TrEMBL record:
Belongs to the KHG/KDPG aldolase family. SUPFAM superfamilies: Aldolase. Its EC number is 4.1.2.14. Gene3D superfamilies: Aldolase class I (3.20.20.70). Pathway: Carbohydrate acid metabolism; 2-dehydro-3-deoxy-D-gluconate degradation; D-glyceraldehyde 3-phosphate and pyruvate from 2-dehydro-3-deoxy-D-gluconate: step 2/2. It holds the Pfam family Aldolase. It catalyses: 2-dehydro-3-deoxy-6-phospho-D-gluconate = D-glyceraldehyde 3-phosphate + pyruvate. It is an enzyme of class 4 (lyase). InterPro entries: Aldlse_KDPG_KHG (IPR000887), Aldolase_TIM (IPR013785), KDPG/KHG_AS_1 (IPR031337). This is 2-dehydro-3-deoxy-phosphogluconate aldolase.
């Protein structure tokens, strides 16, 4: 719905799934992402300071779309409406879908089965986060889903790494993947910031 398709297409090939460990970590990564031209990032709500991390990314990455991930309930959704550019859930919730429609919020629901895809499509969604991708069938599952759901677009997340993400991107129904491996730890960033910057620029060079 809304511009979910634009989000995943613009973010290709990889949507950074950021589980920052601290505010300093978030700040350092946001500065790195801004310098590299990362077009969007999903900040997960898995830390007590997650909302402050979202604000840091919005402040330090003015040219990027900042999303909130791991949104599970109405309270989180309503806050995300005000503080983020898009919302991602690990599963599908009709209540969250209705809130997204009502507030004109870009919402990418998570799905793991054909039944969930059908339920989400009935609510006018066609862009989905397949989660947890590797654990539920990965590339094989996505190939199987292409037949009955030719209009569905996926951003698979969960178990995807530098070693296998190309296998996903080779599928026509996958427009980008979600990955945490491109979010360096504080230690890795301190050791090799230049290396991470070069890697990120290489990933996103076609959209820079």
């Amino acid at each position: 719905m809304n511009d979910a398709l634009t989000i995943v297409n613009k973010t290709a090939p990889v949507m950074p799934v950021a589980q920052f460990k601290s505010l300093d970590h978030a700040k350092a990564c946001a500065e790195l992402f801004a310098e590299a031209g990362v077009p969007a990032v999903e900040v997960t709500l898995r830390h007590t300071d997650a909302w402050q991390m979202v604000k840091l990314c919005r402040d330090l990455m003015p040219n990027a779309r900042i999303g909130v991930g791991t949104v599970l309930n109405r309270r989180q959704m309503l806050r995300a409406v005000d503080e983020a550019d898009f919302v991602i859930s690990p599963g599908f919730s009709r209540e969250l879908s209705m809130l997204a429609h009502k507030t004109l919020t870009t919402y990418i629901p998570g799905v793991a089965t054909a039944t969930e895809i059908m339920a989400a499509m009935a609510e006018e969604h066609r862009v989905f986060k397949l989660y947890p991708a590797e654990a539920i069938g990965g590339v094989t599952l996505l190939k199987s889903l292409a037949g009955p759901f030719p209009d569905a677009v996926f951003c698979p997340t969960g178990g995807i790494s530098q070693a296998n993400y190309h296998d996903y991107l080779a599928l026509p129904n996958v427009h980008c993947v979600g990955g945490s491996w491109i979010v360096p730890s504080e230690e890795a960033l301190a050791k090799d910031r230049k290396g991470y910057l070069a890697m990120l620029k290489s990933l996103y060079q076609r959209s820079l």
